[in-house]
């Protein structure tokens, strides 16, 4: 049986990568390509909706999919825990599923999980993220997700002095986040955990989006149809090996390497 996918934002950069992945994946086909301005009635007839639109449109896409009884994968940035809470009751009441993916890069997912695992051992945490100058939102969805994971892992908020100063960054779940938007950058995030006499930096760089995102896109597509309720993050579908929870059974993933990205952890 072939899963018919309605791809929203299919003419954008991420949408184009997702479209290419779907075309090379057995058992899936793109049945409709929508832009951010398309009439959402074009979702009719799809078995799965994949949203790669823009933050201002994404919430309408999710609602339209759920109201039609169609599961949805959300790759659009800007979905904080507070925003997801607005659609969670609709998803749960409908008996469908919504998978929110802050980042399709498996290296990024692992980096955020490492930061969360280390967070209880350091009183201070800050995130510096950089993206291209055309990115329309800040902080990034990955930074928001990392901050929320850090906060969940800790019993107390992180130490963030001088929160009244604007230059200290936007606080997300008590974690200061600093966003850079500049040409020549694809995506980079550094999480800095600090304690008395030491610091730990966890850095992830995306150097080739198509290569970096493809394995994660495949993972999301292979699991999305079976999801019920809200699932946040690809860590629910892969075995990271550091105690990260999984909300679904993992299916075999053929890709054993993830080209196009560099992850590193350094201690100073």
Shape: globular
Structural class comes to alpha/beta
Q: What share of residues are in beta strands?
A: 25-35%
H-E string: EHEEHEHEHEHEEEEHEE
Give the CATH level 1 class of the largest domain.
Alpha Beta
- Any idea what the CATH architecture of the largest domain is? 3-Layer(aba) Sandwich
Strand order of the largest sheet: 2-1-3-4-5-11
CATH third-level topology of the largest domain: Rossmann fold
Percent of residues in helices comes to: 25-40%
Uncertain regions spanning at least 5 consecutive residues: 248-258
What is the radius of gyration computed over CA atoms, rounded to a whole number of angstroms?
Answer: 18 Å
How many runs of DSSP E, i.e. beta strands?
12
